[in-house]
């Protein structure tokens, strides 16, 4: 794993790929408010960090520190930190080809989820039912009475 200089993770990734290093940068969609409008933007899942595939039997990792945009290699002691392959593989399976994290789809009623879209960002609810068009009916219990919300399944995360 490499740490990029502040706000230089895309530049770092491009420069590593030019030098034939295999990289992986998982990103997630995040709603942004801009002059009252809600815009979808992306941000790295691990801010200013990206995964770099390395052959640990070689000392190629030293070259990475000299690549423009890289602040340093994440280390444990004097050697690079090794991220378990299974963890990276599972992250890659959750992403599309561009590295955008696909949301976990609620499969059944009673799943607890949070929403990712404004105006209900970080809103916790229970899945009441799902429709074939990937719309999900949510049930939110309030102190006074429960109420229902319909949301896109793409904007929900399991709790």
Description:
- By secondary structure, this protein is mainly beta.
- Helices cover 14% and strands 37% of the residues.
- The strands form 4 sheets. The protein has a 5-stranded antiparallel β-sheet, with no helix packed on it.
- It is elongated and about 60 Å long.
- The two termini are 27 Å apart.
Question: Helix count?
Answer: 3
Distance between the termini: 27 Å
Beta-strand residue fraction: 35-45%
The percent of residues in helical segments reads: 10-25%
What is the mean pLDDT?
Answer: 79
Low-pLDDT stretches are none
Total strand segments:
13
Rounded Rg: 20 Å
Strand order of the largest sheet: 12-11-10-9-13
Order of helices and strands: EHEEEEHEEEHEEEEE
Structural class: mainly beta
Largest sheet report:
5 strands, antiparallel
What's the overall geometry? Answer: elongated
Quick recap of the structure?
This protein has 159 residues and is mainly beta.
Reconstruct the topology from this structure.
Elements: E1 2-4, H1 9-18, E2 23-24, E3 27-34, E4 37-44, E5 49-52, H2 61-64, E6 70-73, E7 75-76, E8 79-80, H3 85-93, E9 112-115, E10 124-130, E11 135-140, E12 147-152, E13 156-158
Antiparallel strand pairs: 1-5, 1-6, 2-5, 3-4, 7-8, 9-10, 9-13, 10-11, 11-12
């Amino acid at each position: 794993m490499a740490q990029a200089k502040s706000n230089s993770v895309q530049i770092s990734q491009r420069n590593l790929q030019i030098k034939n290093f295999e990289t992986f940068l998982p990103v997630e969609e995040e709603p942004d408010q801009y002059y009252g409008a809600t815009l979808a933007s992306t941000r790295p899942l691990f801010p200013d960090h990206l995964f770099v595939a390395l052959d640990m039997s070689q000392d190629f990792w030293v070259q990475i520190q000299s690549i423009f945009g890289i602040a340093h290699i994440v280390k444990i002691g004097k050697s690079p930190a090794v991220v378990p392959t299974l963890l990276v593989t599972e992250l890659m399976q959750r992403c599309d080809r561009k590295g955008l994290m696909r949301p976990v789809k609620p499969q059944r009623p009673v799943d607890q989820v949070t929403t990712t879209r404004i105006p209900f960002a970080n809103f916790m609810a229970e899945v009441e039912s799902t429709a074939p068009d990937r719309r999900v009916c949510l049930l939110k219990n309030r102190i006074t009475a429960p109420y229902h919300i319909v949301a896109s399944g793409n904007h929900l995360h399991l709790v």
